[in-house]
Design a protein that fits this description.
The complex is a heterodimer of chains A (512) and B (385). Chain A is of the alpha+beta class and 512 residues long. Chain A is 17% helix and 40% strand. In chain A, helix 1 runs parallel beside helix 3. Chain A starts with a helix and ends with a strand. In chain B, strands 10-11-12-13-14 form a 5-stranded antiparallel sheet, with no helix packed on it. In chain B, strands 1-25-24-23 form a 4-stranded antiparallel sheet, with no helix packed on it. The chains are: A alpha+beta (512), B mainly beta (385).
């Protein structure tokens, strides 16, 4: 900035802005705080003294004074060449045009997105041991709009890759079932998603085919996404009950998904995917399994939106209803699943007489429901609002480690004036251990006669604040307390319980 | 027992009658809605069709200005849609320098003009705003509300740039009365002379940090142009016909100020969307007055309006105004000031409310059976008809 420009801008603002003295005072105080501008301000105040009286006088005589009464400093501002870092604090991505790479790709309909999530989570009590770990995730996604690329309407191609680094707090320090961070996974660089989507009927129907991570579309609670704990993203039940945790971060599976808008407020999703993303080769951590050998996962979801507009909808009276989304779903996996307490002769697996081979069940399934509802918005034109969410699901307890998992919570957007893109929330994640896993613990306890951890349920409570530093940088402070950690059993020593854990952490997310 | 039965029978008959009459009433209502002559323009539209992604090869983003070519000239065909970009490839506001041309006949897009970013004659350089028009003589005039860093901290006063029909800069119009020509223009085009109305939202507006104050210094300027044969238009006279509108720097959307302008059919009134005041005002005798009318008379406020932006006149004489704070376009009968209704034309749930911050420019199709608009968050040109 050029000093002369400041000197001219100050008096203009202060002298002409007669209707809001408070604002003028604030401006003056704020600017005075910057020491290097003092000399400039001195000049500015002199200008102010000179300029203010005629301006006020003119203002009194003619409320519609034309701007030519005082020359505008803006007239003297010259264009500066924009460099790679011009406007870096206000733009939406850290790297902007990447020195021309993004606009060059854009010519061919290609978009490039990259984010880095880094976090340090510290277990300050209980669990396997106290102490902190760093964890990080780099995600790169490339999209291709076929309309822009070669004139084919409604097509989108997407490929993404993950670079997972750092150390997982839950695995080494906590031992909890509600794992502390949604990015925790085995360190690797891997292909994530690889799919093509085609829309039809003016976008009312679309079909996605290829390698997909279904946590991106199914069972999603938008408010729950505020939280760090894994179970607010891909929930506890499918994480533990689907083979390999299901086709969800950091995995994906081959399949087809159809989405259709049945009515403006009702949308249906249905998909069929390979039943076990790692089934053909669990040692492949590059994301190139492309498995089609282990049975199928069928999943369907109905989404009902309230107080949410549809494209082209006419509105006869101004609306004030608060938006909400309600979802119900079901999935079925047609593989075979081992019983968690009974062997193939009907004996407890804890029984010394047991064959050691679990009874086999045909198939596995779960029902679920998700609700996101805004409950308070003082002004529809302002971002401040409060929303609540709840998600609950159940599966048979004989073949599943988790028979019930649930989330609930409350999130406030724009909690403070001038912090439009911040969020603060408190949420709860609950996991109930299946009846047969529980029974096995009971049997083991009876058999050993000594102490034995009998698993029941585990509940984690999380409080978090997301602070947007710049549009491309979010800092997130986080507290998590887990009750009945490990659901009552230490994962590294089943005879021992696990003390409740308390995690303090900070996460930073950068969009490149 | 008998009495009871009769009473019950009467009750049932009454109930049936009530239901029947309710049904008749309901079907009557439905019928009248379905068959009655439309009360406005928006209900006659059928669907919104995304036409193109408007990002040209230099990566410019954030389409704002929209103009449908009234004539064929140079590289432009009558009916082509010119779209101005406000942001550069790094998505910095006030730095866009391109105008793309969508050809409805071929459904292709080409670049009509790339204005030099550092055009010296334009104070602060180039950031193409919503102020744009194409004259019958083939000249395209577009406003610049420039910034060096994407915020109003470094904004310049800007100018109006005159482009020939090949998209080359022919001249610039800068003056103390022009400061960030911002909203869509209203135009009276008589061939060899024309009158432009343009809102200026930059006066007094400083940086966007903290809680920037509202400066009530925005104006509407009338520019009377002479257009000599084969030569670029020259300004014969500049007149501030309205002033005192609020304008405010904004971290998210750069600037909030008076935006949309539209003339009544008899040109006796100029309508202006006052974004800060959340209203539409009307100014008397815009083509002839020689003094400022202040902010004019309030035509309508609030209701469906949520920070009104660009404005056009539909064939029925009603005003169509896009909202900044949701994805709706609002129809207003200027004769009565009544807001008829609104229509959702952007329901992107990535924003709250849906479509918040997505809409800006709007332009009627030549046939008058629909309008073009932009969804600037996804850089697309859309047709509602």
């Amino acid at each position: 900035m050029q000093p002369v420009q400041l000197a001219l801008r100050e008096p203009r603002g202060e002298s002409r802005h007669d209707s809001r003295p408070g604002a003028t005072l604030r401006t003056a105080i704020k600017r005075r705080a910057a020491p290097f501008r003092r000399a400039v301000l001195g000049t500015g105040l002199a200008w102010f003294a000179l300029a203010s009286s005629p301006a006020f006088a003119a203002g009194a005589a003619n409320p519609d004074a034309t701007p030519s009464d005082t020359p505008e400093a803006d007239l003297n501002i010259q264009a500066q060449p924009a460099g790679q870092w011009t406007g870096v604090w206000t733009r939406s991505t850290l790297l902007g045009d990447m020195g021309g790479v993004r606009s060059w790709l854009g010519k061919y309909g290609v978009t490039l997105q990259a984010t880095e999530v880094s976090e340090y989570l510290d277990n300050v009590r209980g669990g396997l041991k106290t102490g902190g770990t760093y964890d990080g995730l780099t995600t790169v996604a490339i999209g291709l709009d076929t309309q822009k690329a070669f004139g084919w309407e409604g097509g989108t191609f997407n490929v993404s890759a993950l670079q997972i680094h750092g150390r997982n707090l839950s695995q080494y320090n906590l031992g909890t079932l509600n794992t502390a961070s949604g990015i925790e996974a085995q360190d690797t660089t891997r292909l994530w998603e690889l799919w093509y989507q085609q829309s039809f009927l003016n976008k009312r129907v679309d079909v996605k085919i290829g390698q997909q991570s279904i946590d991106q579309e199914f069972m999603v609670s938008s408010y729950a996404a505020t939280f760090v704990n894994t179970m607010f993203g891909w929930p506890g039940l499918p994480s533990y009950d689907m083979p390999s945790g299901g086709p969800a971060y950091p995995l994906s599976a081959l399949g087809v998904r159809v989405r259709g808008q049945i009515t403006p407020s009702l949308t249906a999703l249905a998909g069929v995917f390979d039943g076990n993303p790692l089934g053909n080769n669990p040692n492949n951590i590059s994301g190139t399994n492309f498995n089609l050998h282990n049975g199928a996962l069928y999943i369907g979801e109905l989404q009902y939106a309230i107080n949410q507009p549809s494209d082209g909808q006419m509105v006869g009276v101004p609306q004030s209803g608060l938006p909400g989304t309600y979802k119900i779903g079901v999935w079925y996996n047609n593989e075979r699943f081992d019983d968690l307490s009974t062997d193939n002769t009907g004996l407890s697996l804890a029984n010394p007489q047991s064959t050691g081979t679990a009874q086999s069940h045909h198939g596995n399934y779960s029902f679920y429901a998700v609700a996101d509802q805004m409950i308070w918005r003082p002004d529809p034109d302002e971002p401040r609002s409060i929303g609540v969410f709840a998600r609950v699901m159940g599966a048979p307890g004989d073949r599943n480690l988790v028979s019930v998992s649930a989330n609930a919570g409350i999130v406030m957007k724009a909690p403070f004036a001038g912090r439009d893109n911040d969020s603060v929330g408190i949420g709860l994640a609950y996991i109930k251990v299946g009846s047969h896993a529980h029974d096995l613990d009971v049997a083991n306890a009876a058999l050993s006669g000594g102490p034995y951890g009998i698993r029941t349920s585990e509940t984690a409570v999380e409080a978090t604040y997301q602070y947007q530093v710049t549009p491309w940088w979010v800092m997130q402070g986080d507290l998590q307390y887990t009750f009945n950690a490990g659901a009552g059993q230490n994962p590294s020593d089943a005879t021992q319980p696990l003390r409740n854990t308390f995690v303090v952490g900070v996460r930073t997310t950068i969009t490149f | 027992m008998n009495l009871n039965a009769r009473t019950r029978g009467t009750y049932m008959k009454h109930l049936i009658r009530t239901i029947a009459s309710a049904a008749v009433l309901a079907s009557g209502l439905a019928g009248s809605i379905a068959h009655a002559a439309p009360i406005g323009f928006l209900e006659t539209l059928h669907k919104n069709t995304t036409l193109i992604n408007t990002v040209p090869s230099n990566g410019d983003q954030n389409p704002y200005a929209l103009v449908v070519a009234p004539v064929s000239a140079g590289t432009v065909k009558q009916g082509d849609v010119l779209v101005g970009n406000f942001n550069n490839a790094a998505n910095l506001q006030g730095t866009g320098s391109t105008i793309v041309n969508y050809h409805p006949d071929t459904k292709e897009m080409s670049v009509f003009a790339t204005v030099p970013r550092d055009l010296k004659e334009c104070p602060g350089g180039i950031g193409l705003s919503t102020a744009m028009t194409m004259l019958k003589s083939g000249w395209v005039i577009v406003g610049s509300t420039p910034s060096n860093d994407g915020t109003t901290n470094t904004k310049g006063a800007g100018c109006l740039i005159v482009l020939d029909s090949q998209g080359k800069v022919a001249s610039t119009i800068a003056s103390p009365d022009i400061n960030d020509p911002w909203g869509n223009m209203a135009v009276v085009d008589n061939g060899d002379h024309a009158t432009l109305f343009v809102s200026n939202a930059g006066f007094g507006v400083g940086g966007a940090d903290g809680n920037p104050p509202v400066f009530k210094q925005a104006t509407i300027l009338r520019l009377d142009l002479d257009i000599p044969q084969g030569k670029p238009p020259v300004v014969k006279q500049e007149t501030v016909i309205a002033s005192g509108f609020g304008a405010q720097a904004d971290k998210g959307v750069f600037l909030v100020g008076p935006t949309g302008l539209a003339l009544s059919a008899d040109q006796k009134l100029l309508y202006a969307s006052d974004a800060i005041g959340n209203r539409v005002t009307e100014i008397d005798d815009p083509t002839t007055r020689d003094s400022s009318a202040g902010v004019g008379r309030q035509l309508t406020a609030d209701g469906f309006l949520h920070r009104p932006l660009a404005m056009v006149t539909a064939p029925n004489g009603h005003l169509l105004v896009t909202n900044a704070l949701n994805g709706q376009v609002v129809e207003i009968d200027p004769a009565t000031g009544k807001q008829l209704y609104a229509r959702w034309i952007d329901t992107d749930k990535a924003q709250s409310p849906p479509g918040n911050g997505d809409l800006f420019g709007i332009a009627m199709t030549p046939e008058g059976d629909g309008f073009y608009y932009v969804q600037d968050d996804v850089n697309t040109l859309v047709l509602a008809k």
